[in-house]
Fold this protein.
Amino acid sequence: MTSDAPETTVQLDTVAEATTRFLDTARRLGDSDVTGPSLLPGWTRGHVLAHLARNADSLVNLLIWARTGNETPQYASMQIRDADIEAGAPRPLADQLADNEAAATRWLTLAMEAPPEAWEAIVRTRQGRPIPATEVIWMRLQEVEIHHVDLAAGYQPADWPTDFVTRLLPRAAADLAKAAASDPGATAFAIHAIDTDFTATIGAEAPSRTVSGPATSLLAWLIGRSTGADLTGDLPALPAWK
């Protein structure tokens, strides 16, 4: 990609590359692996695969909203979202792969064809948060990268691209800081990425401890994808990251 390519095109290429990595991992699974546990409590790998496909379709809805101006919710309802995941989870690998490939292609094709003005539109996430349509690209990248790890099939947080970690770590820290600020019983602590010198404070009070480690390890712990065993410092209980 040339340096003068539109930023959205560069970002979409990043999503496409992450999706290819995810699908390559999924193709190495067998049918018996699909029913095995993922890293998410109560979810099999099939749940993760079904969720990734339906997530792509939900983000198609947001791109349609941005392009047409007609409000198209990400999901018709959370009940339907959850039911679709449960229904899709037990399918054999071939069906899971075909579904994910088709859904990812639908989303990426629509995104690649979006006119510049569509990216300036404001849409809402399933939680009701208003965002510029450009943020939909980032939403998809997070889903693919994080749930690739959740698949529990060899892809680790250490495999996350540096740019992804650099972008998500401050956001994850800020989200947790906001959650901790509303919890008077939360223990304030600082984090320090030893490889990037990124620091942040979680909690409203002066931090009583510091948790240190590589940026990737900190991110994995903050978003619940690691126990933090590879970090140093007294690890507190974390508020839920959303």
In short: The domain at 7-155 is CATH 1.20.120.450 (Four Helix Bundle (Hemerythrin (Met), subunit A)). The longest helix spans residues 45-68.
